[in-house]
């Protein structure tokens, strides 16, 4: 089948502003949008720049706007979006070239969440694992799925309005640790998130949840963090 | 002039092995990790089913059984001292991951949960044992995240999105690497006393693969061009269950949870090939079984795939026939919810890419190129050894899939790759730091970046008659068709000639993008050059080994030949000419015997 793909192009070494180029390629309805981009790059215009690696929705490299909504290009099939496709970089992060945006501010927010287990208590005397019940493990299962693709954060109107907002992905990371029964750093993280650029900037637009390629109920997770800030309790 | 940075240790690669190496080296030595992607994008994250250790959390298990299973899985080509070392370290390695915060699934008692996996057995009964510690079907993702988090906590220096281009050696010692910063196109020299390569695999030489685009064999290719040998490159693992056509992995954990393989006649065929462990035989065995079913006309609709079936009614029927039980002794009975909980990502992949719901429908699968057993020769401390006498190259280390210790021999057992990266990443990091702390910096050559610059210039200045995308497809097709699951002299010769033809045609490639910022066209072309070099070594090694062993199955030499071939292959690049030699396999406790599952 014939696929028409309109792609946002911006080369900082040549262009003063972005523009769109349209390409027509022969493909299949089961092709991933990533396959279509590869075809354009491979056969028509080698200079087209985008990130990709695993090509099946696990590495988180290829979040972009496809027909106006955030998706992973490798997890979106032509049959899902039709044969007329528009592809643009995600919003809210500076475009470096074509579909590649500056991810450093995104990872900087991640790093502010103290994204590692905090537990200074002695390990079990027998050297074995810390015990955790299946129920306690299930409490934060959802947020362990995050692949840091930034689809959520760059779909959030509050993040567009203020790049100072930590954004949904950072809060998802915080949630993963705050609700882990083995972790002792909840109060530090809740304190960070109670400040101006924390959860108060979430206005439950729900875009993040809809954008998440891992089906994480992000708005709910942010809600749980907000509740913990208010009540000081984790259940 | 390029920018120069100085570190005691530089780690190339930000996957599990590289992060573990970085974490351990940085405890005592000034260390940097350079990675061509943000580390969390690394392919470790795609590993699904589990990491093995004889924790015995559900049933009796011991490191000796794990060792024997790994030796047997390797078809006796693995070095038994290294295997024993890895399996003994496995328990502490997995516990350390838990202590670092890895969210393993849990047993009812709150311990780390474990599941059966192919080739892992109770050595007394021969029955599958629950040895694979898991976090749903995203164990690799959780390992990658946890190790990256620990690196952040311990303030490891990262150079994200820096592509390594060259290895600097001075006076026969490691002196650093050259890398290009993708966002600016600038060359950087990382001057170091010790260099650890942890660049992962090279599955992208094959058409149908579970491997990421990033898996282009950068580390092995760079070192090979510098005269370092590559070991056992003929051994590549084809995982039995990739999603039909796409090659995306469906974890062996699915069969661990009870799924079975079904042919066109609706038969469960694995008992014919592996009467004791059936669908949980070693990967090479299952892939050959699928291929045989297809060749004999029992692929689905006559095509080259079979079904993987995890529908509860199927699983429960065969579990009852096999007498499979839960850890508490009750019969194994699963529900749709079990499937959703145990393998959520697989369910998602099937729904997205196949439009199939595994709870109610069967999954079309075919073998997919998955894992390189061979690579840069190392000992169990990650030191790169450059001959058959165990001579270490001063300051040079490797770990993970790019290395060959060899713990996987001719066929890797499922879950042992994650174990490999954690155990040998750690030891490479420790050993590199120890080395660096007693070594001096070698003086850098006048223009360390000149070779990298000429590589790039050559790619820019070709005639333009050829196109990388097309050349790449030609290579992948011929490698998958002719150096795949079954091999023979004639087909492999065809593949080798094709690869050599492609190497010549590659000189006529011209990169059109003249920019510096994120010039991915230039980088992809450079990576393709690595794949071509690797493909040639794979073809030459495979043609040379005239026997069948593990992942290397020859139609013209169908039997294992311990008399002539119980030895590792080493291939050198001597001024562009490939030369082959061998080194002995280390055998300690387990003499080779027939391999039956």
Low-confidence stretches of chain B: none
Q: Which spans of chain A of ≥5 residues are poorly predicted at pLDDT below 50?
A: none
Overall pLDDT level of chain B: 97
Largest interface between protein chains, with number of residues from each side = A-B, 60 and 60 residues
Task: Give a description of the structure.
The complex is a heterodimer of chains A (235) and B (597). Chain A has 235 residues and is α+β, with helices and mostly antiparallel strands. Chain A is built from 9 helices and 7 strands; from the N terminus they run ββαββαβββααααααα. Chain A has helices at residues 33-44, 78-81, 104-111, 134-139, 157-161, 168-178, 186-193, 207-211, 218-231, and strands at residues 2-9, 19-26, 63-66, 69-72, 84-88, 95-97, 100-101. In chain A, the strands form 2 sheets. A 5-stranded mixed beta sheet of chain A has the order 2-1-5-3-4, covered by helices on one side. In chain A, strands 6-7 form a two-stranded antiparallel sheet. The longest helix of chain A has 14 residues, at 218-231. Chain B has 597 residues and is α/β, with parallel strands linked by helices. Chain B is 36% helix and 21% strand. Chain B is built from 17 helices and 22 strands. Chain B has helices at residues 16-25, 63-73, 80-100, 139-153, 218-225, 253-256, 270-273, 283-298, 312-322, 336-342, 344-354, 416-438, 450-461, 468-482, 489-506, 520-544, 562-565; strands at residues 3-12, 31-35, 51-52, 114-121, 128-133, 157-160, 162-170, 173-181, 187-197, 230-231, 236-243, 260-262, 306-309, 363-372, 376-377, 383-385, 392-398, 403-404, 486-487, 553-554, 567-574, 577-584. In chain B, strands 1, 2, 6, 7, 8, 9, 16 and 17 form an 8-stranded mixed beta sheet that branches. In chain B, strand 21 and strand 22 form a beta hairpin. The longest helix of chain B has 25 residues, at 520-544. The radius of gyration of chain B is 23 Å and the shape is globular. Chain B starts with a strand and ends in a 13-residue tail after the last strand. The mean pLDDT of chain B is 97. The chains are: A alpha+beta (235), B alpha/beta (597). The interface between A and B is large, with 60 and 60 residues.
């Amino acid at each position: 089948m014939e696929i028409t793909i309109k792609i946002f192009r911006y080369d900082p070494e040549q262009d003063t502003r972005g523009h769109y180029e349209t390409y027509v390629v022969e493909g299949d309805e089961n092709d991933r949008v990533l396959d279509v981009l590869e075809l354009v790059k491979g056969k028509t215009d080698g200079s087209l720049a985008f990130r990709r690696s695993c090509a099946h929705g696990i590495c988180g490299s290829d979040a972009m706007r496809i027909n106006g909504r955030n998706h992973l290009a490798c997890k979106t099939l032509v049959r899902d979006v039709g044969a007329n496709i528009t592809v643009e970089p995600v919003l809210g992060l500076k475009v470096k070239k074509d579909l590649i945006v500056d991810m450093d501010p995104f990872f900087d927010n991640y790093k502010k969440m103290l994204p590692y287990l905090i537990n200074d208590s002695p390990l079990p005397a027998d050297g074995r694992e810390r015990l955790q019940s299946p129920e306690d493990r299930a409490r934060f299962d959802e947020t362990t799925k995050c692949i840091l693709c930034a689809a959520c954060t760059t779909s959030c109107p509050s993040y567009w309005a203020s790049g100072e907002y930590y954004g949904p992905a950072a809060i998802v990371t915080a949630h993963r640790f705050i609700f882990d029964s083995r972790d002792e750093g909840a109060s530090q993280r809740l304190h960070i998130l109670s400040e101006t650029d924390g959860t108060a900037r979430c206005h439950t637009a729900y875009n993040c949840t809809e954008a998440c390629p891992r089906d994480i109920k992000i708005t709910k997770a942010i809600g749980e963090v907000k509740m913990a800030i208010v009540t000081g309790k984790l259940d | 002039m390029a920018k120069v940075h100085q570190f005691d240790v530089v780690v190339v690669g930000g996957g599990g092995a590289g992060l573990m190496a970085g974490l351990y080296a940085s405890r005592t030595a000034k260390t940097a990790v350079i990675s061509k992607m943000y580390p969390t994008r690394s392919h470790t994250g795609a590993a699904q089913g589990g990491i093995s250790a004889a924790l015995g959390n559900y049933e009796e298990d011991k490191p000796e059984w794990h060792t024997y299973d790994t030796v047997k899985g390797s078809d006796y080509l693995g070095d038994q001292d290294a295997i024993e070392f890895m399996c003994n370290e496995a328990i502490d390695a997995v516990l350390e991951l838990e202590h670092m915060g890895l969210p393993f699934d849990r047993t009812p008692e709150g311990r780390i949960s474990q599941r059966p996996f192919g080739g892992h057995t109770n050595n007394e009964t021969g029955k599958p044992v629950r040895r694979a510690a898991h976090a749903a079907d995203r164990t690799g993702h959780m390992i990658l995240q946890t190790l990256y988090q620990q690196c952040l906590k311990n303030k490891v220096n990262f150079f994200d999105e820096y592509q390594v281009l060259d290895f600097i050696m001075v006076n026969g010692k490691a002196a650093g690497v050259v890398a290009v910063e993708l966002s600016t196109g600038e060359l950087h020299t990382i001057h170091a006393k010790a260099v650890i390569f942890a660049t992962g695999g090279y599955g992208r030489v094959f058409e149908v693969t579970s491997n990421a685009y990033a898996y282009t064999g950068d580390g092995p290719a760079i070192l090979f061009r510098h005269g370092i040998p590559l070991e056992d490159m003929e051994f590549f693992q084809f995982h039995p269950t990739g999603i039909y056509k796409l090659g995306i992995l469906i974890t062996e954990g699915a069969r661990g949870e009870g799924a079975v393989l079904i042919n066109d006649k609706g038969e469960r065929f694995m008992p014919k090939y592996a009467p004791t462990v059936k669908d949980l035989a070693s990967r090479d065995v299952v892939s050959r079984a699928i291929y045989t079913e297809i060749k004999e006309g029992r692929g689905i609709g006559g095509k080259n795939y079979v079904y993987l079936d995890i529908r509860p009614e199927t699983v429960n029927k065969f579990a009852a026939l096999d007498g499979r039980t839960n850890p508490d002794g009750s019969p194994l009975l699963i529900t749709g919810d079990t499937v959703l909980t145990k393998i959520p990502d697989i369910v998602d992949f099937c729904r997205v890419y196949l439009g199939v719901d595994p709870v109610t429908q069967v999954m079309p699968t075919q073998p997919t190129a998955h894992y390189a057993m061979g690579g840069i020769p190392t000992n169990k401390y990650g030191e790169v050894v450059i001959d058959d006498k165990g001579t270490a190259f001063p300051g040079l280390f490797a770990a993970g899939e790019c290395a060959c210790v060899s713990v996987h021999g001719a066929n890797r057992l499922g879950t042992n790759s994650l174990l490999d990266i954690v155990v040998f990443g750690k030891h490479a990091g420790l050993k590199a730091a120890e080395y660096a702390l007693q070594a001096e910096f070698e003086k850098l050559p006048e223009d360390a970046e000149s070779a990298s610059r000429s590589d790039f210039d050559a790619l820019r200045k070709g005639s333009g008659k050829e196109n990388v995308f097309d050349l790449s497809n030609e290579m992948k097709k011929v490698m998958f068709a002719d150096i795949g699951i079954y091999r023979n002299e004639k087909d492999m010769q065809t593949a080798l000639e094709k690869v050599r033809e492609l190497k010549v045609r590659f000189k006529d490639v011209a990169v059109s993008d003249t920019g510096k910022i994120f010039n991915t066209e230039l980088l992809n072309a450079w990576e393709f050059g690595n794949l071509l070099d690797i493909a040639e070594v794979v073809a030459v090694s495979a043609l040379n080994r005239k026997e069948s062993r593990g992942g290397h199955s020859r139609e013209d030499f169908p039997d294992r030949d311990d008399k002539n071939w119980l030895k590792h292959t080493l291939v050198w690049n001597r001024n562009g000419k490939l030369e082959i030699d061998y080194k002995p396999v280390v055998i300690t406790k387990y003499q080779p015997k027939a391999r039956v599952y």
